[in-house]
From TrEMBL:
GO CC list: zeta DNA polymerase complex
Species for this entry: Glossina austeni (Savannah tsetse fly)
PANTHER family from the UniProt entry: MITOTIC SPINDLE ASSEMBLY CHECKPOINT PROTEIN MAD2 (PTHR11842), MITOTIC SPINDLE ASSEMBLY CHECKPOINT PROTEIN MAD2B (PTHR11842:SF10)
Domain HORMA residue range list: 16-211
Protein name as annotated: HORMA domain-containing protein
Residue stretches spanning the membrane: none
Taxonomic lineage: Eukaryota, Metazoa, Ecdysozoa, Arthropoda, Hexapoda
Domain of life: Eukaryota
């Protein structure tokens, strides 16, 4: 999987847009979740140093290709301020959901590099803290069944979806519009929303919750 940087997010920050910074953070967090929850065999993950901390990143081409295309689409929506939420779902083949991880992204605007965390030190520290906190919280969850599958949903507006689906740059990875509204059941009424982490830096608020 090709990440924007290989050691510290601070290295080449001047060449990056705020959307690139957010997308890489999401890429690392998604890999972190998949590794911690044993959705895929541990052998497909390789330890790398990102944000000055060890993180396990996928080296499995089909998964990397999927994540690349998902995040490419998310970047486009985020850049146009049309991305409301990114959801990572762990589910059964019959669409029964085991866990849903929701990443809410608020106010991803351009930042003043001279005044706002110039070398991204605060942002990097918050990412490191988030990775540690997520590891501590997720290891307390019960083991997922062996049939657990993974997919990503992007929440946007209907107008943005129509415009996006007509964009020739994204025709090789088409998206489907999901209008399904889950009807509450007795089981769903017992579902809990657990805060995983919150990153607030560079005029960004990135909040992650898990629904079980």
């Amino acid at each position: 999987m090709k990440l924007l940087r290989f050691s510290s997010i601070s290295d080449n920050y001047r060449d990056l847009e705020i959307t690139d910074i957010v997308i890489e953070a999401l890429e690392v967090l998604l890999n972190h979740i998949l590794y911690l929850r044993d959705v895929y065999p541990t052998q497909i993950f390789k330890k790398r140093r990102i944000y000055n901390t060890p993180v396990y990143i996928s080296i499995y081409p089909p998964l990397n290709s999927y994540l690349h295309n998902v995040l490419k689409s998310a970047r486009e929506l985020l850049k146009n301020k049309e991305l409301r939420c990114l959801e990572a779902k762990l589910y059964k083949e019959d669409l029964e959901e085991y866990e849903v991880y929701r990443f809410m992204i608020v106010n991803p605007i351009a930042f003043n590099k001279e005044k706002q965390d110039e070398f991204l030190i605060d942002f990097e520290e918050q990412i490191r803290a988030s990775l540690y906190l997520m590891a501590e919280r997720l290891k307390l969850l019960p083991k997922l069944p062996n049939d657990a599958r993974f997919k990503v949903l992007l929440q946007t507006t209907q107008a943005a979806f129509v415009k996006f689906s007509q964009n020739p740059h994204h025709q090789d990875f088409p998206w489907l519009c999901s209008n399904c509204v889950d009807k509450p059941t007795s089981k769903q009424e017992e579902i809990s929303l657990l805060p995983l982490t919150s990153i607030k830096s560079l005029n960004i608020s990135l909040m992650a919750d898990i629904v079980r």
